[in-house]
Amino acid sequence: MSDFQSARIALGARLRELRTEAGFDGKGIAAVLGWQRSKVSRLETGKQTPSKGDLAQWAEAVGRSDLATELTGRLTGLETHYRSWRRQLAGGHAARQEQAIVETAASQMIRGVEVARIPGLFQTPEYARYTFRSNADFRQLPGDVEEAVRTRARRQEVLYEPGRRFRFLVWEAALYVVTCPYEVMAEQLDRLTGLIGLDTIELGIIPFGAQLKRSPAHGFWIYDQRLVIVETINAELWLDDEDSLALYTRAWEWLSEGAVYGPQARRLISRARSSMERISQPGPTADL
To answer: Which of 122, 147, 226, 242 is deepest in the core (most CB within 10 A)?
Structure first.
């Protein structure tokens, strides 16, 4: 169960507690609120997320208007942890990139794991362009691709600021996931190679066949020791509790034990780069 769902269930339990303390059954409070009984049930069991208006009405209906602030605070906390892509990208990708600039600028060290793509901070404009375009098409959302590419490039300026640390782990498989033309992927791999050795960047590649304590299940980023952002297919989780921070820090450390750096990492990237050249070159045509 996700943190979001656990928090929603806890909020539903609080609503049920207030209802029973006020002497209402589900049918009774539904009548007072003018709602369907099924809505009351969905809210109390954590199957539906209430709006702020729903919570204010509930507090008033049970005679506890003074608790409206508490209930909306719980909702705000819940929404902070779970941010659907549809809501975040409703106006396009650039706004989310602006938010990333703020979080990046506020951090001295960012650690990350990517298992199926190149980290956004290391992407070339062309690779980013195809990534944003594909994402917009997949989610059927507005495609402010060029503005998003420019914003991502501006975000990358922080890579060259003295005193910053960017420690990233990329599973070797990500070097072979091609969601753009082969020549674009080849240029992207060249950029990765060029970043190795920069004093602000530590790039590790987790090789195929590396012996690991746990599999690289999904990507995540750790901002200092204050925030973890985990991306799923439909949402981002923003986690700032101590248990989550400790868990993801341990996951990063375990995966880092299987990574290779420096010349070894460069060789793995070069091998992937060579494969792009072989695939992109047409083979001989058979005589018919």
So the answer is: 122
Stretch(es) of the chain classified as CATH 3.30.870? 89-280
- For the domain 3-82, what is the CATH code? 1.10.260.40
Q: Please report where in the chains the tokens 């060789």 appear, as a residue.
A: 267
* pLDDT tens digits, one per residue of 58-93: 999 999 999 998 898 888 777 667 777 877 787 789
DSSP string, 23-56: T--HHHHHHHHT--HHHHHHHHTTSSPPPHHHHH
Neighbouring C-beta atoms of residue 259, cutoff 10 Å:
22
d(CA 64, CA 268) in angstroms, rounded, equals: 63
* Three-point CA angle 75, 40, 47, nearest 5°: 60
CATH code given to domain 89-280: 3.30.870
